[in-house]
Here is the input.
Amino acid sequence: MAIITEDTPIGYALPQVSRKLDVGLNQVKTNDGQLDTIHTNAEAAAREGLSEPIAIGSRIFGVIPRMMMICFDEGWVVGGKGSVVTRRPAGIDDLITAKGYVKSKTVETEDKLRIECEVWVETDKGVKVMVGQCSGLVARTAP
Here is the structure.
């Protein structure tokens, strides 16, 4: 069941969703074995100027749709929209957390409101690694 409704106030803090990253999420296997990449191997990362292996972007992004499902349920699946950008890499052992707040409400149809949210993912060190906006649809009871 969705927790965001037409009565949810602007500024409402979205429920946070966290995930502990680990090297296992980044492993790439081929018929020839495992590939050493900037996502799994310190030497490969150093060759690219990185201080440590970094998480694959989709592993970081994944906490945002989970948060949106909690917020909008079916209104995310049917009618959800999102746009995020990666600002910085996250380390392969970071704890990441999706956060956000309700930014605005607009009438989408006679019976639906679009609730726009500011969203981001930050590490346990407080670094914002992804930022953007997502929105979902909620039932509208008042004309």
In short: The first strand starts at residue 17 and ends at 20. The first helix runs from residue 42 to 47.
